[in-house]
Amino acid sequence: MGKNIQRNDCSAPVLIPINKTGNVYSFQFFVLIGEDIHKGLYSLYFHNCANYQLRDQSTVVNLTMVITEENRGIYLSAGEIPLPQLYFGLSLVFFSLGCFWIYVIRKKKEEAFKIHYLMGLLVFLKSFSLLFHGINYYFIAREGFHIEAWAVLFYITHLLKGALLFVTLVLIGTGWTFIKHIFTDKEKKMFIIVIPLQVLANVAEIIMEESEEGEAQHSTWREVFILVDLLCCGAILFPIVWSIRHLREASQTDGKAAVNLQKLKLFRHFYIMIVCYIYFTRIIVYLLKITLPFQYEWLDEFFKEGATLTFFILTGYNFRPTLRNPYFRLSQDDPDLEMEEVVTKTGLTEGISKTVESRNHGGNSRISQREISHEDD
Fold it and tell me: What's the pTM?
């Protein structure tokens, strides 16, 4: 190997001694960036000079390169140094949010649906994913490489979290357990499409994490990730549009126009929330990443996770288990209308509702009760 060359000035080129053993060339160099004017992002390029001289034929080389990057005793770039603490803090916040959600479910157990437990599981998966991600970055900062066990745990929880997030959004968008308990053929096909696409998107993201930007597979899987992620984000909007159209038609045909209009308003708000969430995390965060100075690159992760936290809180608030939710608010202004009362108290009785008909015949009142499927709402 060639001798070390210490560089304090990055403005001029330097010749590096090269050792040759047969057809093998080896060299090494050391660069120290000690002045503020030279701090920032850098690029390392390799050129096969023989191909510039021999234009009629090309030569093939095999390059093996080992780079050790150290930043004041930490093996992270300036923009990544705050990431371990950031992930640990956000993990604690999401875990606290999940505990509070469990408290709400236990307090309102009689009004809770299966989707509420699924939402709680999603929050805890998000918390553990951030925790393992923070531990992974902690070992990278200390040792210069990640511990495979923590990396695998992060990838598993990240994969499950990503798939469960889109499943939960589609379930809420279709109104599952809230306004119906069965899926149409279109909604079933949506699950068949969205779930595999989301798994593929998470696999592509994992491969991107494990590869370098200069590798061919990194560029390929990055394009796959962007395309599949946008397809998933667009697909989850369709069930909400279908539910909005269904509620709009129902508000004009049945006798519960006020209730359906309230549900319609809630679904419209949910649609706007998802659009804003997708727009911010996919476009705004990317623009921040390419425009912020290098030492503030961690802010794109902060804003992305902050937007996710805000989205989780707003979704949980709008679809919390309570009888005051517009889903369960019934109009009782007209005694001649058929009034449907939700009687879901436990998981065993979910999907059951009670219909009470009240009619007056010459001063005599007759009340009949029957149980019907809640999907008729």
Answer: 0.72
